Task: inverse folding
């Protein structure tokens, strides 16, 4: 199939915006031709996802002059003047794929079930477990009210006790849960628990639900096997859930059933990057309603979704959770707190509005920093090693109290950070995206930064399944924008004001080396363009750490980007001057140093 | 030249309306098709038999079961509230003082003297009609549809549950409302209009027992105070507040749009149902005021048509720079325009009613029916 594909139309239906891109084969490779956005239309008065898609594709049609829309859908396949050879779609609109997961123990099988659902691209709306501390009637009430798209039931290791997981099955039966879409449809339930319990679960749930059994996602305490459950969830999403969402059946027919949950597609891109570069990757996708954080560590993909942290529908919640002071610290000017709260709340009720002024933009970017920071914090808390694993300890381990369930993500050891989502991809200057990522995640050591050019990752993630070559062409030529490497020492409490926090030697092929030093509290940028490489030898200041230990020099080969090499000597965590005017001035100077603004310093600063 | 699809809230002077009353989970329907209902008619019961919860009073108070009947502060058959102290034990010298609280609201149904336990049965939750009209459809255990003729004002955000009362204008559209403007005559009424920049006035509204306030906008922090919590996610309706609040335009002390104000002005003094429940995400729910009217059966329902904007369509600007300004689209250029922020976006050229021509990002417009 791949050889005959010359034109590809890929659509992503987000909670706020529907994005369409047109890709063409040119000079032996696949390149982006154009893109167009339109508001998503799954809600009243439209209640039809295809209205927004038609609007976005219409814009593409207008700009390219190629007829893409027919009387009833997309023109597929292509001829000389119209149509495309392949159409595909990803979706997180209408709340995305909403799932409830149930397990026996909340820290063991319920946690594994949560990971399986998240890996499949779901928003987990409820986690039930025998030990969740709730009364039976409270659980029944929750199940009845949630109306998820799919329930994932897990529990027990293979060959172990079956009574607890069957009890959870009975609870689902008692609640008589009905799915979100389609009143006459049976509730899809995936059972991924103790295989010996399958018959019992089938007896309890078989008639009431659309039950499917897959391999146990926790076959033993030492093993987690989430892939079969994740794949089954995606299959059900396509065949059942999409068929009942507002006119998704029509969309599925337009794209020949090539539809995937957006987060699953973005997760796939993170895996490609980790695989291609042999490194750890942290990805952040800031959406309107939710923020997804992905990490690929030692080849394993971990995903968390912060369901109430986002830049439009959930923006007020970001302010409520972070607090005004936390958001305000990123602003280089004074704001009236009440007016600020009103402006943020207005963004929530009118989510598609875009900032028109410099002040509005900086307010939004300040909230974005806190959105990413809080989501990343949640990701670190949830991404842990398996709990319940038996550990054999020797005398040598007496002082090593590393418990099972320890955090896996370490900001000092992230090789690559990729930002995606409207607020990062559509930041007027790439330097602003880089600064948002640095401020929010505060990586230490040496980290390469990237941003999704126009929020294409969902399209590429799905395309990778259908046409891997086209997906990689697009990813590396049109999607992934290299921002540059960041070198940041940790240990802000030990910084000496009279001593550089970091000194670095950059060696370029065919050019004289360059020596730079960044003083504490400052940011320094050294040009290193996209496509260029350099070897960096960086030494942290006394007592500071670049990932190799306190005061230890580290060396790495880095790739350039549109921001260049960033020496971030603000410390980890970043230290703000205590006095308000100084803080504003520092924030402004950081923006200037990064190239995030070319404006003059405001008079109030 | 292109076209764009924009959202817009419904402001209707009168149409036939079907209100669906859906139980959150399976329950019992109490009405039949063809039945006339009033605002407060109970149309369905959620959880008609209630849940039964056992409370081990003897264990909680650490006393023998034989002492439990004397320790009980409520007798069998009494209603109890969630968290209410239902039993208390004080030792002879007052050294030990223990309490047992009800885990949920309901009726104290039974005492087991042998074990010192009591059972509490939760109360069924009544779902009322909310609007007067005729029941036209029933799905057993789930849903009731009620038909009526009514004017409809949808708001952009609200708090509080449902209520009904008489519409009462409290001031001109742009007049600041002060606490002295509110008095006992507003008890049980739905107050409309004005600019509420002073929280004292809202406090006064609660004191006199008004049902609701419908206004253009309130400061976010004032709405938080009414709701009794900091509103984070855009999902409301279950607040423990006595004052239902509907904002028609947004946050900030902003007046109602002229079109909305003119409509409610005409309906001043009529009975209305009002709901503050909002869901600003999947499955959108908007707060509303429904004002029942006597309409002919064949009254054409002016449902929103294809919400598409062409050159000549009236629109309203919803971004801070020109918030609320009304105008007409005069061009939809294909080329992107660079904003002050440096972003390049698709815009619409809008001729404002004041005569000024402005270029506005297309996303910052909403439909406006003149």
Result:
């Amino acid at each position: 199939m791949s050889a005959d594909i010359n034109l590809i139309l890929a659509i992503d239906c987000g909670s706020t915006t529907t994005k369409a891109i047109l890709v063409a084969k040119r000079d032996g490779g696949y390149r982006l031709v154009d893109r167009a956005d339109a508001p998503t239309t799954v809600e009243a008065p439209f209640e039809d996802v295809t209205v927004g898609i038609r609007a976005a594709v219409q814009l593409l049609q207008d700009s390219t002059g190629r007829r893409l829309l027919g009387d009833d859908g997309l023109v597929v396949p292509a001829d000389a003047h119209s149509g495309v050879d392949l159409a595909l779609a990803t979706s997180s609109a209408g709340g995305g794929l909403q799932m409830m997961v149930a397990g026996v123990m909340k820290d063991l099988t319920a946690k594994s079930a949560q990971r399986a659902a998240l890996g499949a691209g779901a928003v987990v709306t409820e986690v039930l477990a025998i030990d969740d501390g709730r009364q039976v009637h409270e659980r029944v009430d929750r199940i009845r009210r949630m109306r998820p798209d799919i329930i994932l039931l897990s529990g027990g290791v293979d060959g172990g006790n079956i009574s607890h997981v069957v009890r959870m099955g009975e609870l689902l039966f008692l609640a008589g849960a009905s799915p979100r879409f389609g009143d006459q449809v049976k509730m899809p339930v995936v059972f991924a628990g103790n295989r010996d319990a399958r018959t019992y679960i089938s007896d309890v749930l078989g008639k009431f639900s659309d039950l499917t059994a897959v391999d146990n996602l926790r076959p033993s305490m030492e093993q987690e096997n989430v892939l079969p459950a994740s794949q089954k969830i995606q299959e059900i999403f396509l065949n059942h859930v999409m068929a009942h969402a507002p006119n998704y059946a029509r969309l599925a027919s337009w794209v020949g059933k090539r539809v995937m949950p957006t987060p699953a597609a973005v997760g796939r891109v993170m895996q490609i990057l980790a695989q291609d570069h042999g490194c750890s990757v942290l990805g952040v996708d800031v959406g309107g309603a939710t923020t997804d954080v992905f990490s690929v560590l030692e080849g394993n993909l971990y995903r968390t979704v912060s369901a109430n942290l986002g830049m439009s529908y959930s923006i007020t919640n970001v302010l409520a959770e972070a607090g005004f002071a936390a958001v305000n610290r990123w602003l280089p000017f004074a704001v009236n707190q009440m007016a600020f709260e009103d402006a943020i709340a207005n963004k929530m009720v009118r989510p598609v509005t875009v900032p028109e002024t410099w002040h509005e933009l900086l307010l939004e970017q300040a909230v974005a920093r806190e959105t990413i920071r809080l989501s990343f914090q949640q990701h670190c808390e949830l991404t842990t090693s398996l709990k319940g694993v038996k550990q054999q300890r020797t005398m040598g381990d007496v002082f090593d109290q590393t418990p099972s369930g320890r955090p896996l993500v370490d900001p000092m050891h992230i090789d690559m950070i990729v930002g995606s989502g409207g607020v990062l991809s559509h930041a007027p200057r790439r330097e602003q995206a880089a600064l948002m990522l640095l401020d929010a995640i505060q990586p230490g050591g040496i980290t390469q930064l990237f941003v999704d050019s126009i929020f294409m990752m969902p399209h590429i993630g799905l395309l990778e399944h259908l046409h891997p070559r086209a997906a990689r062409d697009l990813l590396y030529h049109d999607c992934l924008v290299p921002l540059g490497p960041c070198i940041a020492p940790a240990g802000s409490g030990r910084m000496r004001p009279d001593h550089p926090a970091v000194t670095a030697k950059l060696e370029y092929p065919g050019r004289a080396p360059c020596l730079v030093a960044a003083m504490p509290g400052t940011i320094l940028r050294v040009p290193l363009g996209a496509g260029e490489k350099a070897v960096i030898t960086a030494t942290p200041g006394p007592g500071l750490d670049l990932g190799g230990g306190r005061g230890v020099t580290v060396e790495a080969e880095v790739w350039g980007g549109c921001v260049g090499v960033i020496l971030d000597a603000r410390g980890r965590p970043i230290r703000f001057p205590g006095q308000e005017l100084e803080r504003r001035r520092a924030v402004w100077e950081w923006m200037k140093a990064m190239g995030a603004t070319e404006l003059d310093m405001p008079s109030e600063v | 030249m292109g076209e764009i699809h924009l959202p817009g809230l419904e402001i209707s002077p009168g149409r036939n309306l079907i209100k669906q009353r859906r139980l959150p989970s399976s329950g019992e329907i109490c009405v039949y098709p063809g039945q006339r209902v009033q605002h407060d008619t109970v149309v369905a019961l959620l959880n008609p038999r209630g849940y039964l919860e056992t409370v081990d009073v003897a264990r909680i108070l650490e006393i023998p079961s034989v002492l439990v009947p004397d320790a009980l502060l409520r007798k069998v058959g009494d209603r109890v509230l969630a968290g209410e102290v239902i039993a208390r034990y004080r030792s002879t010298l007052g050294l030990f003082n223990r309490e047992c609280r009800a885990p949920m609201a309901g009726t104290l149904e039974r005492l087991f003297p042998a074990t010192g336990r009591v059972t509490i049965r939760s109360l069924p939750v009544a779902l009322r009609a909310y609007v007067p009209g005729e029941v036209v459809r029933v799905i057993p255990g789930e849903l009731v549809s009620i038909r009526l003729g009514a004017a409809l004002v949808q708001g952009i955000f609200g708090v509080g549950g449902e209520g009904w009362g008489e519409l009462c204008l409290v001031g001109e559209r742009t007049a600041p409302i002060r606490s002295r403007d509110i008095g006992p005559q507003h008890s049980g009424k739905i107050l409309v209009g004005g600019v509420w920049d002073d929280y004292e006035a809202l406090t006064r509204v609660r004191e006199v027992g008004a049902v609701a306030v419908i206004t253009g906008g309130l400061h976010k922090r004032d709405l938080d105070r009414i709701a009794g919590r900091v509103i984070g996610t855009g999902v409301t309706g279950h607040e423990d507040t006595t004052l239902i609040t509907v904002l028609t335009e947004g946050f900030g002390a902003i007046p109602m749009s002229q079109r909305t104000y003119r409509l409610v002005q005409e309906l001043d003094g009529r009975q209305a149902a009002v709901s503050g429940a909002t869901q600003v995400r999947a499955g959108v729910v908007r707060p509303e005021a429904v004002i029942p009217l006597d309409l002919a059966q064949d009254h054409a329902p002016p449902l929103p048509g294809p919400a598409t904007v062409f050159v000549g369509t009236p629109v309203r600007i919803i971004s801070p720079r020109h918030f609320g300004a009304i105008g007409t689209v005069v061009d939809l250029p294909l080329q992107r325009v660079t904003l002050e922020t440096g972003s390049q976006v698709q815009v619409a050229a809008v001729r404002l009613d004041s005569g000024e021509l402005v270029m506005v990002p297309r996303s910052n417009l909403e439909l406006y029916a003149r």
Q: What stands out?
A: Chain A has a mean pLDDT of 87.
